[in-house]
Specification:
This protein is of the alpha+beta class. It has helices at 8-17, 33-45, 60-63, 67-72, 95-105, 107-117, 119-134, 150-158; strands spanning 25-28, 51-54, 75-77, 92-93. The chain has one domain (8-158). Helix 2 links the parallel strand 1 and strand 2 (51-54).
């Protein structure tokens, strides 16, 4: 993957070289322009310790995430569990992944993440996230490729 943003490719390469993370990993759909725009916002504005990485460049098996899970929603994969070197914590998806990323960032972002974890907010945010994820190809920056499963994207690219 190439990017006009200096350093972005290096982070992608770094994440693909490692199996289980020694720091958290936030996975997003790198083929989706809307998702990539959101990831760039995170990289510029949210001071997380996580590697923000397209799932297409990550070792999903080592991270404990399936391709179907990565296609369906953003993923937060915690760093290695203490005393369990080489074994990442349990991944979470969707709004829970976003909440973890915000909590990890600290400052006022932590407060936003904690609010997102509260049951009444979580009950509303989950369905809203799913609607956005299913319709991301219709959002600003989205493309028709955003709605295709990875197998279909690869079939089209091979033509």
């Amino acid at each position: 993957m190439t990017s006009a943003r200096p350093g972005h490719t290096a982070r992608v390469d770094e994440a693909s070289e490692y199996g289980p993370p020694n720091r958290p990993v936030f996975l997003y759909d790198g083929d989706c322009a809307f998702c990539t725009s959101c990831a760039r916002f995170i990289e510029r504005r949210i001071p997380t310790s996580a590697r923000v990485t397209p799932w297409q460049f990550a070792d999903l098996e080592a991270l404990g995430v399936t391709q179907a899970e990565a296609e369906a929603a953003v993923q937060w994969v915690p760093a290695d569990e203490p005393g369990q070197r080489g074994r990442p914590g349990q991944p979470v998806a969707g709004t829970a992944a976003i909440a973890r990323l915000l909590v990890d960032a600290g400052s006022y972002w932590r407060l936003l993440g904690r609010i997102l974890e509260l049951p009444p907010v979580r009950w509303i945010a989950g369905p809203v996230y799913r609607v956005v994820a299913r319709n991301r190809h219709r959002l600003p920056g989205g493309t028709a490729a955003c709605q295709l499963p990875q197998a279909e994207r690869e079939r089209i690219k091979a033509r």
